UniProtKB/TrEMBL annotation:
It is found in: Membrane. The lineage of its organism: Bacteria, Bacillati, Bacillota, Clostridia, Eubacteriales. Keywords: Membrane, Transmembrane, Transmembrane helix. It is a single-pass membrane protein. Belongs to the LemA family. Pfam families: LemA (PF04011). It comes from the Bacteria. One of its GO terms (cellular component) is membrane. The keyword ATP-binding does not apply. This is LemA protein.
Amino acid sequence: MKKSVKILLIVLAIIAVIAFPIIGTYNNLVSLEQKVDAAQSNIDTQLQRRSDLIPNLVSTVKGYATQEKDIFTDIANARSKLAGASNVSDQATADGELSNALSRLLVVVEKYPDLKSNENFKDLSIQLEGTENRIAIARQDYNTAVTNYNTKRRRFPSNIVSSLLGFEEKPLYKASAGAQEVPKVDFTK
């Protein structure tokens, strides 16, 4: 009987030696994945904030710049794409298009000195600038969380646990193609 108890204790010790690191790794991966989800949610919140500010900004500018209809259409289309984005890649592409259209809108404002001195426009511009800064920080936080998560899930022995338990790689938030290009604004139309 003592021998069977000893064997049972040895088996339980071996199971514990194997199980505790697996449980610890699993819990760590869950925590890192939650940080990625929270960071993604923060991006969504800031993009929504910007999206909510844009109609007010556009309507303020429309009164001054009625001939700039293409920019207003581009902004509306980009906002629709952003609202319908189903993953991080689509969201980043739509976000880039919206940022491009907004920068073109702000260039148009330079043509209208009265608009630049309009209090509503000044206030909206300040809010938009603050929101753009928040979006940039939220993107950085997301990419940091994704990098930490992806690194953990690829390192040994976490890679074994992550592959067995279905922890998938998360995509980084990347700028859309052409985001580095300067927006083209044509005032000759």
